[in-house]
Amino acid sequence: MRRIFFITIISIFIFFVLFSISFLSNIKQKKEEFITKYLAEKLRFSLEFIPSMNNISGINQFAKRLSKAVGGRITIIDNNGRIIADSYNYGYDKDIIITAPEIKLAAENKMGWAKVIRKANKKGKTLCMAYLIKKRGKVYGFIRCCLPINKLKIIIPSLKELFIKNLLFSLIPTLIVTLLLLKFFGISIKGIKKELNGISNEFQIAISNQDLAKDLHYLFSEIKKRYKSLLNEKEETKKLFNSMPDGIIILDRHGKIEDLNIKAKIILGKEKKDLKGKSLLTAFRIVELKTLCDKFKENKEPKKTEIKIKEENKYYEISLLPIKEDKVLLIFRDITNIKKVARIKSDFVANVSHELKTPLAAILGFVETLKKEEENETHLRFLEIMGRQASRLNRIVEDLLTLSKIELKETRFKSEKIILKDIIRNLFSLFDEKAKGKKIKLLSFIPDDLNPIKGDAYWTEQLFINLIDNAIKFNKEDGKVIIIAKNINKDLVEVKVEDTGIGIPAEHIPRLGERFYRVDKDRSRKEGGTGLGLAISKHIVERQNGKMSISSEIGKGTTVTLLLPS
Amino acid sequence: MDKNPIRSHYDDKLNHIKEQLVYMAGLVEKSVEDAVKSLITSDSDLAKKVIEGDDEIDLLELKIEDESIKLLALRQPAARDLRFITTAIKINAHLERIADMAGNIAERAIKLSTQPPIKPYIDIPHMARITQWMIKTSLDAFINEDPALAEKVRNEDQKIDKLNEQVFRELITFMMEDPKTITRAIYIMGISKNLERIADHAETIAEMVVYMVTGKSVRHQREK
After folding, report:
1. What CATH architecture is A244-334?
2. Nearest CB to A287; choose among B18, B30, B43
3. I need a surface site. Which of A90, A308, A419, B172 has the fewest CB within 10 A?
4. pLDDT digits (tens, 9 = 90+) for B27-64
5. Nearest to A415 among B25, B45, B136 (CB)
6. Does the model's ipTM exceed the 0.85 cut?
7. CB pairs below 8 Å between A and B: how many?
8. Strands A480-489 and A441-445
9. Best residue in B9, B13, B19, B149 to probe A by mutation, most A CBs within 10 Å?
10. Which fold, A416-565?
């Protein structure tokens, strides 16, 4: 509404300005012309009714009536220049009238009339006009009219025409301009409103959608508020970013460093350098990092890996995460101390196990010797128990030693081509007797074209010994142990070890592979398990860059799935 | 600021060559490190890996050379850019030679892995550390266009020469004492010589960096 009001006011203003300019300029030019014409007409017309020059009183009355009608001073002069009648009643000077230029000019003019404009006083000009009084070719005298131009009170009919003409002349362009303005503003405002709605939707700011000015004001103040809070947030995030104990690097879609925090610079020993915009490789010169990022870009899966920075002898766990716009987030976590602790622990376990092994060997040896010489049955039974428990302890110690060796990475894993079929065949003959004792069938489905597994033959055999042993141990009578293998692709082989045993409750599955974790402690102990078999298996698979997963259904059996590189 | 798209594309190409060279240098450094490690730990598997890894470096050499020549032919660079590309081509060849030498070390390491060491290795790992530092630093100088850093590399070469002489003299005494050690000693001499040659290549890279940045050749101008 304000808009229309505003436009109307402007239009009216423009109209009046135009009209006034046009009218005033015309009036100025035409004023004298109108008066002259008007007077000339009036006087010529009055000549028809002028009484005889001899009729003094009649002629005087005529002069007064005419003066009233015209609004000026009327003087009637005879041929000799004598004033016969004057509409003004004050004394007059005969000579002035006779010598008046308009009289002279009228006498000389063939048309029989003349006009003169002269300055009357300080206030303005006077128009004086004289006409010959001529009847039947004879001149009787003059009629003269004087009229002050500025005090024109008479209504001039021609002025009305002029007024209408000017009015029309001003109105038409005003209308056109108004229409154009309306259209222009209308379109602009429509556009502005559309934009406004777009912005309000994007920023989720509710606007009333009625008053444009109010909406604009509200929108801008809201955006300003949000911008300020964003700036604050940005500052806070920056502080947080730089105070984090982990090193963080953000890579753009081309693999160039977009941002990194102070810790990342410290980790990589480049505190003082501006690394933004550089590629990861040129900035840090760590080939492993580049390879890692390249691999990550291919599959886009969040990944964790460990790298060692040579100069400082430190270990870092690097997490790669995808972020929006194809960017990559790299997080460096210092795990040097964790590694150190793990090493101390493994060293301790290895040392303790070693220390335990020596006396155990002596105990076992002496128990065996005593058993041969002992005749007392009770004593023999005791010795039997001692021997059994010592053997169990020996197995645990041996398993612990194996585990710590694998964990410490002291044991070197060879990279050999292993034919799975051969290993399984040997192992089945090894476990044959044990399986027959529980009436368990050992089955294998290994295709002839199975790719050879890439890994260490000794440790791979150990892995399958553990798995088959478990499958037999925790199986039912008349059960089965099935080994199925297949090629996943040219680099990966899948091997499944299935049993038809008692199964493992779902809540235990995530914890399998932890040391000494047993699902059924009594049964495990009865079966002679150490609780380390799966932990060792898991480590062997991981050392060979494979994966191990376990699925189980109670009452139906358990399946261990291995993904091994080929 | 508006970027000239043609110039930008050209800069990208130059940066790509730089990047590839840095990657190659990383692989070469690792080869040298692993080759010497395989010798010390008698790890023939690791030595085999080094020999196999040479193929990737060879491919990379061809790729970098191809890209550099294309850039020379298509863009006809001048002044600093011309010096950069010609230097890159030369560094590329030197890095490839270093990788070959790492392969030579690995081959000897395999042969030595089945025999007992003459004595614990002390100087060889020390030489390896210095040569690795020289490769790394010369490439750092190349990336950062830093002639001062390149100069440091040039000074380090003398240490390697002295160490090589020391190893040589020491091995001769072993051979004189016990002729059975001759085969092993000759292998170790070969390793030491290879490390010395690697250092020479790193030194040449550093000299080329000085030329690239300053436009002045400092080759064959060592202060004595």
Report:
1. 2-Layer Sandwich (3.30)
2. B30
3. A90
4. 898 898 899 888 888 888 889 989 998 898 999 999 99
5. B45
6. no
7. 28
8. parallel
9. B19
10. Heat Shock Protein 90 (3.30.565)
